[in-house]
Amino acid sequence: MDSQKLKSQILSILFVASKPVTIKELVGVLEVSEEELKQAVAELVSENQSSGIILLAHNNKLQLSSNPDHSSVVKKFLSLELREKLTDAALETLAIILYKQPISKAEIENIRGVNSQYTLRHLLIRGLIEKIQSPSDRRMQLYKTTLEFMQHLGIKDMKDLPDFEELTKSIELPGAAQNANGQ
Amino acid sequence: MQIKTEQFEGPLDLLLQLIEEQKLDVSTLALAKVTEQFLNYIRGLQEKNPINLADFLVIAAKLLVIKSKSLLPNLDLGTEDEEAAFDLTAQLLTYKKFKTIGKFLGKLDLKRRQSWAHEVDFSDRVTFLPDPDITIISLAASLRQLATELKNIIRLPQEFLKEVVSISDKISQIQKLITEKIETSLSSLIKDAKSKTEIIVTFLALLELVKQRIISLEQSEHFADIMIKKTNAI
C-alpha cells in the first residue's frame, strides 16, 4: 500500500479510538504487514513532533495525544487545577520500571531494598504503569510503563529519553569506583 | 553521631546517606563503621514506623556479617551468606543509579509538560443496525402480532371489572340490613353471593365495620356461624 495513504488511515482510526490501539489491531484492520505498519508508525511519530497532535507509541500501543509543548495553553483552556506531585518513592519505582521493563515486583523490591506494594498500587491507580502476565511464568506479573506515563511526563518519543548508561555513567559510590566495578 | 530523623525511602537509602555524609570510601571497613548508626536508626524505627522494619533488618543482618568479618577475619560464615553481604556494595550502586534517574523523572514531572488524549467515546453512540433478513412483509407480520397481543392485554382488566363488587357498596348494604334486622349472621349475608370475590368483599366489609365500631361480631364456638349485631350506641 502507498505509505502516505497508510499513514493517513492510521491517523483516522487513532482519532476515533478513545483508548490506546494495539499494532495487532491495526494490522488486522488495515490488512498490511506488521513491518509496514511499524515503519509507517515510526514515520508518523517523527513527522508529528512539532504538530499540535502527536502520536505516542510504546509497548506496541498507539495513541494520539496533545503536544506537551502546548501543555500550558491547554491547561488554561481546560482550567485544570495543579496536579499532585509524584513522591520520591513513586519516582524511584518508576525509574526502575522505565529502564528495566518488563520487570517483576520481586526485582523492583530487590533494587529498592524495600517493600514496594503500596507504591506500585499507587502508580497502577494513576495509570502510569500496567501489569502484564509474564510470558514465561503465568503466575508472575510484570510491570511496564504506559502511554499515560508518556503523557504525564510530556515524553514525545521514548527515544528522547536518555540512555540508562548515559544517565548513570558519572554515578559512583564515594571512592569506590574500582571496587563496585570489580563486583 | 546522630542520625537526622528524616524519612528514608528504605534501608539502602539510609545506608547511602550514612556513607556519603561521612565521606567514607565504600569499603567493607566503611560499611562496618556505619553498622552501629544503622542499628540505632532501626531502634527508633521500631516505635515510629514499624511497617518496613523487616526490610531494614535484612540490610542490618548483611552489615553485621561484614562487621563480624572485619573484626574476626578468620570467621567462616559459609560462602552464601558472605557473598550476599558483600554484594551490598553493588546493590548500593544500583540503588543510587535508580535514585538519580528518579530525580531526573522528578524534574520532568515538575516541568508539567502534560499531554492529553482525545477523550470522545464513539463506542457509546447508539446505532441502529437492522437484521439483514428483515423485509416489509416480516415487519408487517410482527406489527400485526404485536397488535393482537396488545388487544389481549387491554381486554383483560375489563373482564375483571365486571366481577368486582365494591367494599363501600357492601358496607352500605350491610349497614342498611343491620338497621332493619338488628341482628343477622354471616351465613345469611353470603347466601346469595354470586362469586368467591363477593364473599371476600363481604368479609372485608364486615372487618371494616367492626374496625369503625359500627357492628360487633360474635361466634359461640369454632366454625359456628358468626352473628352480626349493631354496636350499642354509647
UniProtKB/TrEMBL annotation, chain A:
SUPFAM superfamilies with a match to the protein in the record: Winged helix' DNA-binding domain
Single GO biological process annotation from the record: chromosome separation
Assigned keywords, A-Z: Cell cycle, Cell division, Chromosome partition, Coiled coil, Cytoplasm
UniProt-listed PANTHER family: SEGREGATION AND CONDENSATION PROTEIN B (PTHR34298)
Pfam families named among the record's database cross-references: SMC_ScpB
Coiled-coil parts of chain: 23-50
NCBIfam families xrefs: SMC-Scp complex subunit ScpB
Organism phylogeny: Bacteria, Candidatus Doudnaibacteriota
Alphabetized Gene3D superfamilies for the sequence: Winged helix-like DNA-binding domain superfamily/Winged helix DNA-binding domain
InterPro entries: ScpB_csome_segregation (IPR005234), WH-like_DNA-bd_sf (IPR036388), WH_DNA-bd_sf (IPR036390)
The keyword Cell cycle is assigned to this record: yes
Keyword Plastid among UniProt keywords: no
The name this protein goes by in its record: SMC-Scp complex subunit ScpB
From TrEMBL, chain B:
High-level lineage: Bacteria, Candidatus Doudnaibacteriota
Protein name, entry field: Segregation and condensation protein A
Name of a matching Pfam family: SMC_ScpA
InterPro entries, per database record: ScpA, ScpA-like_C
Species of the source: Candidatus Doudnabacteria bacterium RIFCSPLOWO2_01_FULL_44_21
